[in-house]
Amino acid sequence: MTKQGTLGVAVIGTGRMGADHVRRINEVTSGARVAAVVDIDAERAKQLADRIDGCTAYTDPAAAMGSPDVDAALIASPGPAHEAALLKAFERDLPVLCEKPLTPDADSALRVMEAEQKAGHRLVSVGFMRRYDAEYLKLKALLDSERFGRTLMLHCKHRNVSTPPGFTNQMMINDSVVHEIDTTRWLLEQEITAVTVLRPTPSSGAPEALSDPQLVLFETSGGSVVDVEIFVNCGFGYQVQCEAVCESGSARVGDGHALVSNTAGRWGGDIDQDFVTRFEDAYDREVQRWVDATRRGTVEGPSTWDGYAAAAVCEAGVRAQATGARTVTSLIERPALYR
Amino acid sequence: MTKQGTLGVAVIGTGRMGADHVRRINEVTSGARVAAVVDIDAERAKQLADRIDGCTAYTDPAAAMGSPDVDAALIASPGPAHEAALLKAFERDLPVLCEKPLTPDADSALRVMEAEQKAGHRLVSVGFMRRYDAEYLKLKALLDSERFGRTLMLHCKHRNVSTPPGFTNQMMINDSVVHEIDTTRWLLEQEITAVTVLRPTPSSGAPEALSDPQLVLFETSGGSVVDVEIFVNCGFGYQVQCEAVCESGSARVGDGHALVSNTAGRWGGDIDQDFVTRFEDAYDREVQRWVDATRRGTVEGPSTWDGYAAAAVCEAGVRAQATGARTVTSLIERPALYR
Amino acid sequence: MTKQGTLGVAVIGTGRMGADHVRRINEVTSGARVAAVVDIDAERAKQLADRIDGCTAYTDPAAAMGSPDVDAALIASPGPAHEAALLKAFERDLPVLCEKPLTPDADSALRVMEAEQKAGHRLVSVGFMRRYDAEYLKLKALLDSERFGRTLMLHCKHRNVSTPPGFTNQMMINDSVVHEIDTTRWLLEQEITAVTVLRPTPSSGAPEALSDPQLVLFETSGGSVVDVEIFVNCGFGYQVQCEAVCESGSARVGDGHALVSNTAGRWGGDIDQDFVTRFEDAYDREVQRWVDATRRGTVEGPSTWDGYAAAAVCEAGVRAQATGARTVTSLIERPALYR
Amino acid sequence: MTKQGTLGVAVIGTGRMGADHVRRINEVTSGARVAAVVDIDAERAKQLADRIDGCTAYTDPAAAMGSPDVDAALIASPGPAHEAALLKAFERDLPVLCEKPLTPDADSALRVMEAEQKAGHRLVSVGFMRRYDAEYLKLKALLDSERFGRTLMLHCKHRNVSTPPGFTNQMMINDSVVHEIDTTRWLLEQEITAVTVLRPTPSSGAPEALSDPQLVLFETSGGSVVDVEIFVNCGFGYQVQCEAVCESGSARVGDGHALVSNTAGRWGGDIDQDFVTRFEDAYDREVQRWVDATRRGTVEGPSTWDGYAAAAVCEAGVRAQATGARTVTSLIERPALYR
């Protein structure tokens, strides 16, 4: 439990995901700072670095990872650049968070894996972020508990509003279904042994040459079957759902952000048992917002006036409770400071 | 956008809420550190401080707030101790996050408010954490947009599993309904002008002398009516729900963590439009976990093996997609490092 | 179990509700027929009667109820006409289904009750149709079981899209809230002992002079408290909801036609246990449609072709199941009779 | 609109389904009566017939269908007996409602179809009852409207609590999935052109020799793809769900008896627009119950006392509304007749 040893991170690649990770490390994450940003566009890297104390801009990942300020690397450059950056990080024994995909194909991934084994210990975490989603974590915990027995099937849906120009059939697998591939392997702790793809007549909303939607089937080493609807031009929203079918119950996530299960004649979900779990995120957000405002030199959130008004209404409430009668509250005029 | 000027916070009071806030600032919050902990129990404060770099233990709030390491205070001591601590903070011009209640009654709150006005600017944020809950924030945004017109009524439910020994009728108002008091004032931006309390025959599950549940009614300065079911021994869970009834629609939060609304012949909720909003929390959690593990000198999360396996399955998937045939994947044997 | 003794019903009043009841008895109800229709508009009654075999038109309820063909009466005339019709029915010892309200006020209802007592046995059923709604019946059964203990509160919502011209504040009670009055008395099996009405500032969508919405509170002889939101110009739909708060759980109806309950850390609903309960209504509808079509001399619904196609696909399915291979079906060309 | 010409039905087969249809025609259906029951167990048929006025028992379907009292036949005997009964019905030109399956295989179904074509007009309705389920009817109407464009995929789940002894893999297709076969053909108005079956490692809850669950895939003549989870020993309930994925939205039925759809950034369902649609079934049930009670010589349902009490509370409510004050109701003592 220490704030010492703040982690100096080099963020490699500052496109949409990279820039967002810079913001995240800088403003959201506890215990880390952005020590270096790397982009082949030198101007872009410099502009970003200039806004962060103690942050240096680079165009070469190796140079950034060679800096004594850098304790770890976050790779968010395009997939084809990952292998070289990872190998450099291994040379320096730097831990790496690598955005998915690890590398663009299995052969290059094998080479990375061999290099990491030579390093003798794990250095890489791959950015499959669903493993950190609150709902998926609940589903994983439920399956691990084996409360419903073994998992027999997964029904998955992965829907995007629309695709950018140039999106291909291969990208439906490599960029989209890859998440269900990881989810399947993680939830079941089994490898995928066979894949089948069914392609219905495409939606009229799909770009020409894109076979959208598709139904992808996985068979796993433990004998489970998984179906994945991938529909990347569904038009109505970004919707990721997963239902696990187990021996004595099923459970799904992705409907309005809650885990809903079927078991023993009942469907439904858990009810929190206290405010600590129910409002954990709210407390986190509250304190972060207060720290942010204070560091900016401002004061926000519920004011002393709000505290006073609550106290005054409580007093009326306690009287109303005791007497059974409608009880009028009385507040002083609101001071200028609180208007 | 800077990590410089990390905020030194004095946490005053280290009971359940205070200790949790120490953990939060230390491990979750970006840009702040616990510089001082204060408790009348010197041993308790010392034990907590010893585990945090650069943190000093105190028994006197004034002494802690006098330290040059302290830039701000978080008050989590019992309500009756708040007034003195707040006045000390004002003397030192320190920003304060004060756990609710501000003070135990309206008179003391008035004195605090007068002192803050003498300081000439706002220093206090009161810890009504519901204002930071994701669902309530969505409800607030919907009401502020006036998309459904003016808000006419609120229906609120506040249910606890059970009460600790010594819980009184007054505490049902002062400790529980106080949240609905603040929620009402915040959502409607109106003051509460009258309160009525109805008390049905108590549940057999309620402790003797506790009139549980109760129905509390608020009338507001803008002519709205609010009903609050307060049921602190409901037995089944901690459940906080709120439905706003507006001129052309209604919306409720608290069912399975989503905002559900009625309007124009349809009930339902919003669907996220991209992965950034849908998985924002997952990304935050992913990076925080990676930073935490790295600082501990460990590597966790999806491994290079997971990245390789995903790539190998993607390759099979793309072939399956192109051929229409069931396609077997081929993986190397899992290296020892990744078992 | 007999079709003999088909009940001859006199329908008194042939406005919207009356005409609908004529249709219902004629086309939906088993074991009854419309033997007489009564309306002060002789032409209207005659037109209706002419379309029904063995049905006679009347303008005088007493004359209709005097017919030897009439075994029972359904009163759907305006409320002020109910008392006279009921007294006539009692003279003839006819069972009556009387649309709500029984009579327009308590005094006239008392007179009817005295007359029925003189008859010495019950003759009247009042048309509070919610007692026959599938959801309310489930809620009633749950409360009667006392599985969740005693019922402490009811939270009710009664929303209409909009009101016809001339709708008054009194009608909000007499025509709308009267349903919650009966629901409360039926669900709790208690009398209502006190009523309070709160009137927020009206919606801008409400007609002038109508105080809409209102919050109506009931206290009952058993110490329960009931709140009713009545909002007759909500704009978005007709929505009737009721949540019963009990000692160890709560349950609500009116969200998407299912009973949802909270108990012991779980929210959710029951899952049917077999097809007989799940598809009971479908079976009823299937047979009724078949009888209706057959009596009209037509044949509808799934055809022999549908039966053949299902058999052919089953055969392919059983082969696919046995071989593990994709199996093509083969159908003959669709004969003209089934196109 | 007539009660004349009540349809005389011969029910052939009086097992579980047949006996239930006898009850349905006798007690629920308007305009029909059971004129004959047929079972190879003469005693069983006689016992059933004896309880119904004007009903004759038979052991031979042909004899029953030859009776002048019989206008139509409902076949609920075992599947292998259907062909002979259907051919006899065609000889007598009798309309038939035939429980599924039409016949046990495609060849026999072809023979039936040929015979019906010789008759020159349709006589058969097959008992695929899902086409009459309220939810499926809503889904069908939505798809037919093409409001969401063309239907691209169906995701179906068909779950049973458990199977009786002797249930085979083939029966999973022929008795269970046959419903999804018909549903697919009806919803899409397309033929099924290919079938594939995937069989995960069976659940430990499945009887030996049963490969349960299975994933069945259909391809259709219009290029749609359908997946069906069939899980006949799921343990938790009877659950039938179907989600249609269309070009600009999706919609599913089977969760708590409502149609839920996704479209244009919103998930949710329709809200009824008036009480006629919302309470249609309640009205039907109300009148049927009243007719049933009256024919039995009893009076049930809300009594005159209920009508009086509602009127008295309304009077208090109108006063409370006008005065703003809590208003006590006053009821006479409840007369003995209504206790």
Walk me through the structure.
Four copies of one chain form a homotetramer. In chain A, the strands form two sheets. In chain A, strands 8-9-10-7-11-12-13-14 form an eight-stranded mixed sheet, with helices on one face. Chain A has a six-stranded parallel sheet with strand order 3-2-1-4-5-6, with helices on both faces. The mean pLDDT of chain A is 86. Chain A has 339 residues and is α/β, with parallel strands linked by helices. The longest helix of chain A is centred in the middle third of the chain and has 20 residues, at 169-188. In chain A, α4 (82-91) runs parallel beside α5. The radius of gyration of chain A is 26 Å and the shape is globular. Chain A has three domains: 7-127, Rossmann fold (3-Layer(aba) Sandwich), CATH 3.40.50; 131-270, Dihydrodipicolinate Reductase, domain 2, CATH 3.30.360; 302-339, no CATH class. In chain A, β13 and β14 form a beta hairpin. Helix content of chain A is 37%, strand content 24%. Chains in contact: A-B, A-C, A-D, B-C, B-D, C-D.
